[in-house]
Amino acid sequence: VQLQASGGGLVQPGGSLRLSCAASGFTLDYYAIGWFRQAPGKEREGVSCISSSDGSTYYADSVKGRFTISRDSAKNTVYLQMNSLKPEDTAVYYCYAVNRVASYWGKGTQVTVSS
Predict the structure, then answer these.
(1) What is the pLDDT of residue 53?
(2) What is the model's pLDDT at position 70?
(3) What pLDDT score was predicted for residue 9?
(4) Which residues partner with 50 through β-bridges?
(5) In angstroms, rounded to a whole number, what is the distance separating the alpha carbons of residues 93 and 18?
(6) Distance in angstroms (rounded) separating the CA atoms of residues 112 and 115
(7) Three-state helix/strand/coil letters over 77-99
(8) HSE (CB half, 13 Å, CA atoms) of 17?
(9) How many CA atoms lie within 13 A of 85 on its CB side?
């Protein structure tokens, strides 16, 4: 059982990245999925999540209108499309899968927004 976040990198302010959260050994459709981030010297914060039941989504105020979370059931993957990136979005991004039975954290992926 493994959850892996990928897709991070270095991007200029105003640029875009798409993060992927891929699972092996379990099906993401049965889990609510959250994206979290942690910047140096700061606590981990929730960025976005998508429910397992009706696909409803949540976004932190700091990313609303710029980030979009989505599922691809065929690929057993959840994405976080990040547009109009700002330097303050720089952090290690993690995905988290949870339901009533189990929860999993994925290894993070570094996102750096800098000119």
Answers:
(1) 87
(2) 97
(3) 97
(4) 33, 57
(5) 11
(6) 10
(7) EEEEEECCCCHHHCEEEEEEEEC
(8) 21
(9) 23
What tokens were used for 112? 């750096």
Angstrom distance (rounded) from CA 35 to CA 49: 6
- What DSSP line would sit under the chain, residue for residue? -EEEEE--EEE-TT--EEEEEEEESS-GGGSEEEEEEE-TTS--EEEEEE-SSS--EEE-TTTTTTEEEEEEGGGTEEEEEE-S--GGG-EEEEEEEE-SS-EEEPBPEEEEE--
Q: Average pLDDT for consecutive 10-residue bins of the chain (115 residues)?
A: 94 98 95 97 97 94 98 96 98 97 95 97
